[in-house]
Amino acid sequence: MTVFFRPHSLLVKLVWMTLAVLLSACSKKEAAPAQSAASATVVTAVTDDEKVLNVYNWSDYIADDTVKNFEAKYGVKVNYDVFDSNELVETKMLAGSSGYDIVVPSSQFMERQVKAGVFAKLDKSLLTNIGNLDPATLKQVAMYDPGNEHAIPYMWSTDGIGYNVDKVKKLIPDAPLDSWALIFDPKYAAKLKDCGISILDAPSDIRSIVLIYLGKDPNSQNPEDLKLAEAQLMKIRPYVRKINSSQYIEDLANGDLCVALGYNGDVLQARDRAFEAKNGINIAYVIPKEGSIVTIDTMVIPADAKHPKNAHLFMNYLMEPEVAAANSNKVNYANGNTASEAFLNESVKNDPAVYPTAEIKAKLTPELSVADDYNRLLTRTWTRFQTGK
Amino acid sequence: MKSRTAWFRLSSLVLGFAFLYIPILSLVVYSFNKSKLVTVWGGFSTQGYGKLFENTQILDAAGLSLRIAAINATGATILGTFAGIALARFGQFRGRTLLSGMTTAPLVMPDVITGLSLLLMFVAMEQALGWPAGRGMTTITIAHITLTLSYVTVIVQSRLASMDIALEEAAMDLGARPVKVFLLVTLPIIAPALASGWLLAFTISLDDMVIASFVSGPGSSTLPMVIYSKVRLGVSPDINALATIMVGLVTVGVLLTGYLMFRRDRLRQRDRQLSESLG
Lengths: 389, 279
Known about the structure:
The complex is a heterodimer of chains A (389) and B (279).
Chain A: H1 2-29, E1 52-58, H2 66-74, E2 77-83, H3 86-95, E3 102-103, H4 107-115, H5 135-142, E4 152-164, H6 165-171, H7 181-184, H8 186-192, E5 197-199, H9 203-213, H10 223-236, E6 242-243, H11 247-254, E7 259-263, H12 264-277, E8 283-286, E9 292-299, H13 308-318, H14 321-331, H15 346-349, H16 358-361, E10 364-366, H17 372-387
Parallel strand pairs in A: 1-2, 1-3, 5-6, 5-7, 9-10
Antiparallel strand pairs in A: 4-7, 4-8, 4-9
Chain B: H1 2-30, H2 47-54, H3 56-89, H4 96-108, H5 111-129, H6 137-162, H7 165-173, H8 178-207, H9 210-215, H10 223-229, H11 237-278
């Protein structure tokens, strides 16, 4: 008996100790840390009683010190969380009481969620910096959120072509580098096959772009137009190596791909990494002259947000010219804030991959959401394209 | 003939180890990458490690993940042990099939379903009862216990099934009450199963991304969630650095337990020899 005695008392003690830890940890961690940067320079502003703000944004989508500066200026503690997919945000928004005060969904998703009534109407009297925004961008957002009642643009991005400058020039000396023909014309695609073509795994984006290439309305929901687009896509299917939405960043940077139909932020990422690695690979991004689609990420306040005033305060802060410029300088996305342009780095402002020329900008179309029936057709079309049958 | 089998054995050993460890090795190598994009080699540097210790987002997430994993493992082990004992020792009570089915259901349930249903339940509970107020560490821990409980139950149940019940009967014959039998006889014997159940629950919780992303709330991003969200701009070497440190710690831990067990075995062998020579 004495043999068993010692392990027994130790075990019992261990179980009780862990139980105690479990209980205390559970109860302690939930209390939000109320104390924060209580520095002398706190600016008085309209805030909620509880000086906490819960933000849910895309990962790596803000300058390093933006949140810190906001906390110091207004004495509001910010819990900053990040996500990587619109779908997850949508699940949390539709389930309700997410706990977040500001979320940043992309415009097409925001449109659906606004219709579902999960966002609060903005109090424009608290958003004094709204005049800094580009009216053209606001108008594009209004296509999803009529009257700009719920959403404020944060950053916007484009779809375009990322290409390996030297390899493409070597294979096709007279390549149409400013046209979707580089990918969608079988004549060119065939020559690029061995070097590698990658296309985004984003059915509605690609359908809109092919329609633009064919000179049709990019938001057309006519099944006949979809058939035309499919026929065009099938012509180049044998020459497409990959259909995906993230691997092409690394492949471009490593020189494993010649041409990628991708998002501007991703292609710029590949360009900068290749440049840093000094591997002799030269990547460029172009928005073809036929035009392209633009995606706007928007800031919204959930209807059940506990700190709506803090949320308005943060939104307004992000619209300050210097703050918006600092964010764009860091993440290489255009911000739709006209007043911020004076504070942008030259390298960002003059980069047509980030801020397209006025001529190209006029040809950018927001992509509207489609009816369920059409969506089903689109999904089937896309499956046929992916499998190549 | 003999040399041929030796060659076969050697090559399968090498290939097997290569399959298991080359990914980990490449992870360690790339943690010394200078480029910000993991797979693009930009020269040797230790700045990934420097950046890691400045990156409070990743460090906070790692701390949170470890805390959740430890609490979850403890909770799941306690509850799983109870369930395992009920299933192995309490005979054919009413609802036994239901209990055994229900405890093992999370094993086969897709994570997405578990995550979504828990999210909906937590939201409904918050509206009806006011608890849990919002989502965060508590809800992630509860969700993980739901998931890992079944693993512990299965381990404990099978250990109890293979344990000689005569030991418990003997203790009861000698006058011990059931609780005392459990604490003095059963528990020490199944302790290794509890330890492995705890470790398994800990690992599963540390790994889980899907369920945690559903039931997390403001300020409670676990490490896998943060790493996964970085995919958009490419995984940076500081994450490799963190993984390398973890691999290092695990290696030290495994070596240490291996050494301790080896020493205990040798001590036991010596004791046995001693008693035999005395007898």
